[in-house]
Amino acid sequence: MKRNAVTIAVSFLLTLAVFVLMDGHFLSKRAEASELKWVGCGITKKAFMKELAAAYEKKTGTKIIIKGGGATKGIRAVAEGVADLGGTCRHKIDVPEEKAAKLHQVAWDALVVVVNKDSRVDSITTEQIKKVLTGKIKNWKEIGGTDSPIKLYVRKGRISGVGLMVREVIFNNPDQEFSPDTKIKRSSGPLERAISHDLYGIGMTGISSAKKRKKLKILKIDGVAPTKDNIMSGKYPFYRPLYLVTKGKPAGEVKNFIEFALGPEGQTVISGQGTVNLEEGKVLGIK
Description:
It is a single chain. The termini are far apart. This protein has ten helices and twelve strands. Strand 1 (35-40), helix 2 and strand 2 form a beta-alpha-beta unit. By secondary structure, the chain is α/β, with parallel strands linked by helices. It has two domains: 36-108 and 239-284, Periplasmic binding protein-like II (D-Maltodextrin-Binding Protein, domain 2), CATH 3.40.190.10; 109-233, Periplasmic binding protein-like II (D-Maltodextrin-Binding Protein, domain 2, 3-Layer(aba) Sandwich), CATH 3.40.190.10. Strands 1, 2, 3, 4, 6, 7, 8, 9, 11 and 12 form a ten-stranded mixed β-sheet that branches. Strands 5-10 form a two-stranded parallel sheet. The model is unreliable at 5-33 (pLDDT under 50). The chain is globular.
């Protein structure tokens, strides 16, 4: 009798151990399934992505790991399948590396001209910024500043989110050459930080990141400030779309997140960051 009781107890413990191991395995699988990887441009990240990911995790339990890398990486990493989601502030270009990516517009951003906060200049015209970028204007006194040389900062490469869109939005020419006398920065963050510490610096970036830097001044364009109202109405001229990226047609948890971002909850989160959502920017159309 005693031996039978021991046998039953051992059998019970072994069965329990199997169930614990199996449950741990399935919990692990569920944990893996409830985590997505996002890569993309810093402007998209600062425009809404951190807050959108937090809201989605609170609602669903799915955590989104956010990594930078730039707009091009946000498209190509997803197309290659090394990330679940991406973020980009430029459209796709016709190259094999981006063919598999699908873009989903979720918001609007604006390209802005930034200078040091202590600069005397508050506004610039479209023609003036064209001439600054191409090196035809080289001194601050030509645009209302002191008699000092302009130090132009630009993004590295022609297909970065800012680099490509500045060429297309302002010059209507994706191959536009900029002045050879420039200080080249690998991404928008270093460009913004450099101008923050250079009284004679000037450059272009996205409003979503620039507005969060206290040592930068954002210039008016043709007398129009890039306020949220002016961007959503189209009064401010240099607006552009912001996208989430998937590999082809989204499915599963990726599809759920895209639907969340495009739905009322996600669009409310985006607007709450001071970013123009799709409804607010409806007069701008969908790009």
